[in-house]
Amino acid sequence: MTRLLVVEHEADAGLGRLAPVLRQAARLDVHRPYLGDRLPDGLSGHQGLIVLGGAMSAWDDEVAPWLPATRGLLAGAVGAGLPTLGICLGAQLLAVATGGRVERGDRGLEVGLVPVTALPAATDDALLGTAAGDDESIPVEVAQYHQDAITELPPDATLLATGERYPHQAFRVGKSGWGVQYHPEVTAADFAAWLRDGHGAVRAAGLDAAEIARRYAAAEPGLAAVARAHAGAFAALLGRST
Questions:
Q1: Can you point out the beta strands (E) in the chain?
Q2: Where in the sequence is the domain holding 160, given as residue range(s)?
Q3: Alpha-carbon distance 30 to 212, whole Å?
Q4: I want to staple 77 with a disulfide (CB 3.0 to 4.6 A). Which of 82, 98, 112, 234 is the partner?
């Protein structure tokens, strides 16, 4: 059976909405290094890789000493042409691992429902094509919670979606590596926990956590559709890799 390696950085930042579809497509081999799980030395026996989000920065090797190994897995997966997806921190790690740059964002915290616009390159992209729909110019609202930002894409990357505050919202690197700055996976419960844990930062940014939570709840149908599109497309990629 297809095996998918998943690197989870925090208990409230798991596969979430993506899990039901991916469980039907592959055996999920979830590693939680924050709980002491040792990451594999390579991807032998796995047909894909997903690296999830977390509160640490992509360069916080002292805070999260497993990050160098995670970057190594990402670079190896892209080099081997395995379906690879990095989400938020995972996207930033993917960018760094393949020659891009990540820095503290100079436009502040991006949190809540944020419109992102698919670019023409996304129309027939294997992962983002389904999510982009028929008109790539129509913004789609997605869940966000980050301040670090990809400031320079890897040399051979293609930008697939952009946003007003931070332009590098989705990209493809190599033939089968994708990074998304937003969170298609986050459940309502996990997003509420992020808002509670980050309440001070949210308030300092001049934002209303309660209003953000209300808008998130009201957008449930759209968020579920975004998750299904991403999970279904990635599951299809896994099927082709076996």
A1: 3-7, 27-31, 48-51, 84-87, 101-104, 110-118, 140-146, 148-152, 157-162, 170-173, 177-180
A2: 3-241
A3: 30
A4: 82
* CATH (domain of 221): 3.40.50.880
| Residuewise pLDDT in 10s, the chain (242 residues) | 899 999 999 999 999 999 999 999 999 999 999 999 999 999 999 999 999 999 999 999 999 999 999 999 999 999 999 999 999 999 999 999 999 999 999 999 999 999 999 999 999 999 999 665 555 555 689 999 999 999 999 999 999 999 999 999 999 999 999 999 999 999 999 999 999 888 778 887 888 988 998 999 999 999 999 999 999 999 999 988 76
The residues that are catalytic are 88, 183, 185
